[in-house]
Amino acid sequence: MHAQRVSVRLADGTDALADVDLRLTSATSLGLVGRSGAGKSTLARVLLGLQRPTSGEVLLDGAALPRRRAGLRRFRRCLQYVPQDPAGSLDPRRDVAACLTEPLRSLAIDDDHDSCVERALDAVGLDTTFARRRCSSLSGGQAQRVAIARAIGTGATLLVADEPLSSVDVGLRRDLAALLQHLHVDHGLGLLLITHDLHAVASVCSTAAVLHDGRVVEHGSTAQVLDAPTHPATRALVDASRPGALG
Ligand SMILES: Nc1ncnc2c1ncn2[C@@H]1O[C@H](COP(=O)(O)OP(=O)(O)OP(=O)(O)O)[C@@H](O)[C@H]1O
Fold this sequence. Notes:
Mean pLDDT: 91
Strand content: 15-25%
CATH class of the domain at 2-85 and 157-240: Alpha Beta
CATH architecture of the domain at 2-85 and 157-240: 3-Layer(aba) Sandwich
Strand order of the largest sheet: 6-7-8-3-9-10
Largest sheet: 6 strands, mixed
Helix content: 25-40%
Order of helices and strands: EEEHEEHEHHHEHEHEEHH
Number of helices: 9
Structural class: alpha/beta
Shape: globular
Bound molecules: adenosine-5'-triphosphate
Number of strands: 10
């Protein structure tokens, strides 16, 4: 997928995104960081086809994202989203299999749905007995895993995760970071991890990009970006993430 020179102009004339150019493949594990209001969620919405850029395009295998909802199906099969509160995105009244099957149905995926559910649960480290568990009976960590399984059950090759670790405690955050890394390394899932948390980027992502006032101001290997920042916005983020720093 290629976000090709994407800009989003706001009503007040400022740019939420300005000329952002990013390529994402199944080999990508990119941490996208930036202070609040930098444009991270706007970029996620544009990549997901939920918001049209003012200029520039999102391309999948060289073809522009279709404007019609139905045309977005093929694209959605490749690219899935994990929201900020993954567990909260599950319907507590339904069982896990029903939650995992819903996107398979809406995306008209022909594969055997039971097998897709089994594979997805296995990939996130849950055994098949979870399929019959009610979502309301899951622990926080299990629900987060199910929500990730729901996203990858479609056979997606790319995952956009917007602050997926911010609503959980430190122990769980470490587990989920390890899971995301495992999905990238062992299952070949491309990852765009949008976060304020530089520690999560350092532990999960091989590359990092810094968004500042809608522009990508730094982009390179995680070590290069976080250990030797060249842009003041990156330095400010790195300083703020040091132990003892406020915020
Ligand atoms: N629906 C909207 N209408 C108008 N302006 C918006 C809207 N959503 C976002 N913005 C503006 O776009 C800019 C980028 O916001 P965005 O939410 O993408 O930043 P962010 O980096 O995700 O911030 P945060 O980390 O706080 O979620 C900000 O100036 C914000 O005020």
